[in-house]
Write a structure and sequence with these properties.
The complex is a heterotrimer of chains A (about 325), B (about 240) and C (about 290). Helices cover about 35% and strands about 25% of the residues of chain B. Chain B is built from 9 helices and 10 strands. Chain B has helices spanning about 45-50, 75-80, 95-105, 110-125, 140-155, 170-185, 200-205, 220-225, 230-235, and strands at about 5-15, 15-25, 30-35, 60-65, 65, 80-85, 160, 190-195, 205-210, 215-220. Chain C is mostly helical. In chain C, about 70% of the residues lie in helices and about 5% in strands. Chain C has 11 helices and 2 strands, in the order ααααββααααααα. The chains are: A mainly alpha (about 325), B alpha/beta (about 240), C mainly alpha (about 290).
Chain lengths: ~325, ~240, ~290
């Protein structure tokens, strides 16, 4: 255990540790100095930071491009919500069922893809197909509300972690805790055999296999871990927004939103998804504010902005914002 | 005493084309054996079958008495065979040290132990100075050394080298030869190599097996093989002996 | 269920499928030759559709007459896209290229949303409600003309690749990239040209499609996916395969709509895609990798 703790800090410069501590402190204090609107924006940023971190495990670490991750958010959200509304199962317990179900979906997709050697763009298309299939399926799943939606009752302003009912500030700290835990968890993964094997698979599968790595097993592990982590984002979504519509939660647009943070922030890095999510969310909000003020608030502007950001990063900053920024700030450590 | 690697009746057909036909040879423990022959002779196909890239159509392969025919590449590595690739495949996004650590994780479950083993191997192959460089930034000779280091990291009993000298200058070739000699003498590492560079073959190999059109046409000590009329007739490499 | 109804729906499905096939043909050209995963394919078709809507609205011209100019405009757009955004980044990892086109698609969809708003538009031509009766068959005039137009464009495309020097050069590039360079073909220019041709194809398909369905900015992604399904089912690198795939998908969608819940017919295409990816990845007419 102590070995793992030591390993967590290995190779990280003291400067970086302090910077990280400052960021965490700022995030802990932020709600106390923000109004309701800013708080809601921060919650969204943290949501995308966490979900992006979960997706990053599959793509940034193991190199499998999933474009249907909204599937896991959706099935987890519906599972936890249905258990709560129909059988009064509180989300603190329901979340385990949600995680399991998301992992099962992930395992099925992973198994089919990896057993049948579906890779590259075909793999991505497969993930999209599953998400879309499920979306249309839930549209007709009247028991879960169908396309009309599934609703949770909004009640109580007192914070209750067990049922995830409460004021926005409670949701903020829940999301912050999740994001921080995910960060530490991902750090543990990268400093372990699993992480190294994933990176090897990402770089060159054939070479990885020749070094004794059971590529199928480790790819499955990546999909299962990623889908399980994403499930928690889904549970959060259900209890924060209190309404679920298949067209929204399973949509391809949602899947793409999830991956913007990590890609713009820095694929395969630890801090990238968090930075990317915050930069995107805050910038997009700023852009919306400016447009509203100048009277140009037309639907679609924000998405065009996202598209431009994505294009700019892909063309000029292929590794994302974080790696060059990290170097500029002098936060790089030894290997 | 049984040889470390026993190849019996190895054959492979690709949709009717016989690439390898009834090849048999032994690689005794602690020795260095070379597999040579003109291009298209079937050397790399044999290699790939031993390394588990694809199964043979016929024949058996035994490692230390254990039948490893048809096992997957990762199973073969865990069984004790390390291999390099003809066209090197470094993990470009990882550092040199990380590359070899991946290999060492085959022998050591703990990351710290694997890193230590990797450090040893890097020093042996003269890559320690460059350990924190990304593998993508290495020159070709260094990439070849990295390829060998990574395979060595897995802690193999048998090392398969696929044309590792290709593209190296004579001084670099001699350096590599020295490394393999040292490994073989000090640790008893068994080596099977495919090579076109005769300079290296003659310096290293205890025995040579010659393939042509997928069949064995000669096998024996280097001096005898290079004088064998059948071998001279087909091809004996572009370099002067 | 009366046999006539089934037959009519089937014929309708096949005719629609031909238009799908034309759209997928564009992707087959782009994906099959230039190896670009054109994630903006459906969005390019939407561009063509809106072009037809605008021209119809302002000049009253039938979309079928607008085929050539719209296709030409899309050709230019495709050429520019390939030469500025894709050719320079051909050495980047696969997912980079992919994400770039995702970005282009996002910009296209939402750009259209900004300009035209979310409401559905269509082109109500004078013969929109006509139909022909052949025995028990009742065929919509619109669907028939659309299918014929699609066939005409497809045939023109086949002729281009079979008979013209540029077309042959493009096929050479597809077959053997290095060899094509060695014999002196300007591969980058040909790639841009090919992307343009594919875009023209999908632009023409859009012009035709606008006779069959209403257009909103959001339909782009669904048709991108449909194009990929068709190309994969029909077989990558096979142009007849794209048409065949289109007909199959059009037919199965129509049948699924008839026998199951109509709104669920989208699920069918995805189920077929999964099955094909797993069991016969080279598709019906494609070459085995």
């Amino acid at each position: 255990m102590s070995r793992m703790l030591r390993r967590l800090g290995e190779g990280v410069s003291p400067r970086a540790m302090i910077a990280l501590g400052l960021v965490l402190a700022a995030l802990i204090v932020a709600p106390l100095v923000s109004n309701g609107y800013v708080l809601s924006v921060l919650i969204i940023a943290l949501y995308y930071a966490y979900a992006g971190q979960a997706w990053n495990v599959m793509m940034g670490f193991a190199g499998q491009l999933s474009l249907g991750h909204s599937l896991y958010v959706g099935v987890a959200a519906y599972t936890a919500a249905i258990l709560f509304v129909r059988w009064n199962v509180p989300p603190i317990i329901g979340m385990f069922a949600a995680i399991v179900i998301a992992m099962v979906f992930g395992a099925v997709i992973g198994f089919l893809a990896f057993r049948f050697s579906v890779s590259g763009v075909y793999f991505s298309l497969l993930t999209i197909a599953f998400a879309e299939f499920t979306r249309i399926g839930f549209d007709h799943f009247t028991w879960a509300g169908g396309s009309g939606g599934f609703f949770l009752k909004v009640e109580g302003r007192t914070a209750d972690l067990i049922t995830l009912r409460g004021p926005p500030i409670m949701f903020y700290y829940v999301m912050l805790a999740l994001t921080a835990l995910a960060f530490v968890f991902c750090r543990m993964l990268t400093q372990s055999r699993v992480g190294y094997y994933w990176f090897a698979i990402r770089e060159d599968q054939e070479a990885a296999q020749a070094l004794g790595i059971n590529v199928f097993r480790y790819k499955m592990l990546a999909v299962i871990v990623s889908s399980g982590m994403t499930a928690l984002a889904g549970v959060f979504f259900a209890f924060y927004y209190n309404n679920l519509f298949p067209e929204q939660i399973f949509s391809m647009a949602r899947s793409i939103e999830l991956i913007l943070g990590p890609i713009i922030g820095g694929l395969g890095t630890l801090f990238g998804p968090i930075l990317g999510a915050f930069v995107l969310t805050l910038l997009a909000d700023l852009v919306t504010e400016v447009l509203v003020l100048t009277g140009y608030d037309i639907p679609g502007v924000k998405q065009v902005f996202y598209g431009l950001c994505l294009a700019v990063v892909v063309i000029w900053l292929p590794l994302g914002i974080w790696p060059p920024l990290k170097r500029r700030l002098g936060l790089e450590g030894r290997s | 005493m049984n040889a470390l690697l026993e190849v019996r009746g190895l054959s492979k057909s690709f949709r009717g084309l016989k690439a390898v036909s009834q090849v048999s040879f032994d690689v005794p423990q602690g020795e260095i054996i070379a597999l040579i022959g003109p291009n298209g002779a079937g050397k790399t196909t044999c290699f790939n079958m031993i390394a588990g890239a694809f199964p043979p159509s016929e024949g058996t392969i035994r490692l230390g008495g254990r039948d490893i025919t048809g096992l997957r590449a990762d199973q073969i590595c865990r069984a004790g065979i390390g291999r390099t690739f003809q066209i090197v495949k470094p993990f470009a996004g990882l550092t040199v040290h990380e590359n070899v650590t991946v290999g060492a994780l085959n022998a050591f479950a703990d990351l710290g132990d694997a890193k230590a083993k990797a450090a040893e191997v890097l020093q042996l192959l003269g890559l320690w100075q460059k350990r924190d460089q990304p593998a993508a930034s290495l020159t070709l000779p260094d990439r070849k050394r990295l390829e060998v280091a990574r395979a060595l990291g897995t802690g193999p009993q048998l090392l398969l080298l696929d044309e590792v000298m290709a593209g190296l200058r004579p001084t670099e070739t001699d350096q590599m030869v020295a490394v393999f000699r040292q490994l073989n003498e000090q640790t008893g590492l068994t080596i099977l190599l495919i090579e076109h560079v005769m300079r290296a073959v003659m310096a290293l190999a205890r025995r040579i097996v010659v393939l042509h059109h997928g069949e064995t046409i000669a096998a024996g000590e280097p001096e005898a093989v290079v004088r064998d009329p059948a071998v001279l007739e087909c091809y004996l490499g572009a370099e002067a002996l | 269920m009366p046999a006539e109804l089934i037959f009519n729906v089937a014929v309708g499905g096949v005719l629609t499928g031909l238009v799908y096939g034309l759209m997928a043909l564009g992707l087959s050209v782009i994906f099959g030759v230039v190896r670009v995963v054109n994630f903006a394919h459906g969005e390019m078709m939407t561009l063509g559709m809106y072009a037809a809507v605008v021209l119809f609205g302002s000049l009253g011209l039938d979309p079928l007459l607008m085929l050539v100019p719209v296709a030409a405009a899309l050709f230019v757009i495709g050429y520019i896209l390939q030469s500025t955004l894709i050719n320079p980044f051909v050495n980047r990892p696969e997912h980079s290229q992919f994400m770039l086109l995702v970005a282009v698609a996002m910009i296209m969809v939402n750009g259209l949303l900004m300009i035209f708003g979310p409401n559905a538009r269509n082109t109500l031509v004078s013969y929109a409600l006509d139909s022909y009766q052949v025995g028990p068959l009742i065929i919509d005039a619109v669907r028939l003309y659309a299918a014929v137009a699609a066939m005409a464009v497809a045939l023109a495309l086949f002729a281009f690749f079979k008979l013209t020097p540029t077309g042959k050069a493009i096929r050479a590039c597809a077959d053997n990239y290095l060899g094509a360079q060695v014999v002196g073909l300007n591969v980058k220019r040909l790639y841009a040209f090919t992307f343009g041709v594919g875009a023209a194809c999908v632009g023409a398909a859009g012009c035709i499609m606008v006779l069959l369905i209403d257009v909103t900015p959001q339909i782009g992604p669904a048709y991108t996916l449909l194009a990929f399904v068709i190309v994969i089912v029909g077989g990558l690198g096979s142009m007849p395969g794209a048409l065949l795939g289109g007909i199959l998908i059009g037919l199965s969608e129509a049948m699924a709509g008839l026998f199951f819940v109509p709104s669920a017919k989208g699920m069918f295409a995805f189920a077929i895609l999964v099955l094909v990816l797993l069991l016969r990845p080279q598709g019906l007419l494609g070459k085995k990798a």
